Fold this protein.
Amino acid sequence: MTVFDRILEARGLTGKTRSAFLSPDYAAKHDPFLLPDMDKAVERLVQARQQQEHIMIYGDYDIDGLTATSVLLDAFESFGFEHVESFIPNRFVEGYGLTIDAVERIAETGAQLIVTVDCGSLSEKEIIRAGELGVDIIVTDHHNVAPVQPPAIGVINPKRLLQDYPDEYENYILKPSSGMQGKIYPFLDLAGVGVAFKLVQALQTKLGGLEEGQEKWLLDLVALGTVCDIVTLRDENRANVFWGLKVLSRTRRPGLKALMAVSGVEQSKVNARSLGFGLGPRMNAAGRLETAQYSLDMLRASDPMDALEKAQRLDAMNVARRAEQDKIFKEALVQAEQYKDLPVLVVSSPGWNHGIIGIVAAKLLERYKKPTYVLEEMGEEAKGSARSYGDFSAADAIRASDDIVTKGGGHKLAAGVTLPTANIAAFRERVNQFYRDQNLFNQQALLLPKADVDADISEVTEELIEQLSQLEPFGSGNPQPVLRSNNLTVMYTRRMGAESQHAKLELRGDAGRSMQFLAFNAPKHFFVEPGESVHVWYQPDVNEWQGRRSVEGRLLHLELVE
């Protein structure tokens, strides 16, 4: 059995499952009306279309919310809605999600219906206020849900089904043995843009203007939002991103073309990594520093020169974001050293832009191997972001602190919190006690790479790397394969980089084949001596340099053989 076949088998991809995974079928999409309240939302939107009501799409300031907003703006125009606008909250003014102030301002514009994207599931008081002002709300979201749904026309959120039928799902997928097959939605980890796209598919069954199949041109936006929101790239998400990348490679959108150009992404070779590390950070930079409206304007631009100007502005903002991020990170490191013996880090300071501290939290987690909360102190109030890993839920720890925080929520691995500045020390104590109460152990081992299979380096060829490309798009739930090769002999080690921080190794297997491995910002134990024997975990790739091609490994982990 080849290495490729062994990897597929290790991932449970055999028989029909293998074929479906390697060749995702967009036509196998799930019935949108199996989502909660979809029928009510569609009925209300059909009425709005008949009466040409004023509609406000209420987005979010991250890429998921921005792409979802753009999907609905595009689709509603095709369906013939004539009075549709969008509202993107400002992180530094409204903050995340619906606010009463924003609802009141929208009501003053004459809007009769608000459709949220990527937010709204927990916005009961805001939805009640909208009702008092004569404004209906349809929620489309994928975040945590309330035990009792707010009084919206409909709350289209697949996570409601996980709350209502917890035993029917495994890893967000309806169990094959479930008696609810065909009765409830079978895949729950849609991004916010994925939920908005399901609303479009449902509306296609009731309204003209967007013929069946034409909605595929929206998949470039769906792919961008899905990849950047780091949802599981399985099931419907995989199909949407797989085909969305093909749409993106020939997208008609001047904004996305310009953004790829300034990001150094070759349009014909765009992949999931291009979205996560090229397009995504530039779009997010606007909302982190000023307003995400700049990114929406770029997505919606129709003139190529205007689009390029807007994309260049995002690129410049991303440069500024990186500089500010580096400054905050250095300051946070000093403070983190004071608390490094605690299982959970909580650091805070005035002047740490809360649009950027989520990235800093991720970098601290990577450095200290601990769940991390980073807070900006803003007078009497502090606002922060959390990043976690393994079995510790950042969002649940916030819920366990309900009595000392103002508000908070999010996901297991990423969350946000607002609290009185005076309560930061108590919050630090509370989340650390929550960690201890979970009786978690050996968590750091979960950060180590896990090999799909063992492979001799003689098996690692260009042909294998070409085969592995069939598994793309890579991302959450479908990571790039990791190989482990054992008992390799170190031929040489070379330090690289301005601070000698990178490592380049040549390792030889028992069969006499040698291969080079590269590690950026390598830990000290990667700098092994010639003659030593090691086990290595790595991702294979093809290196092209001055017309020469060679197979090399991106080194993820190394252990000395005792």
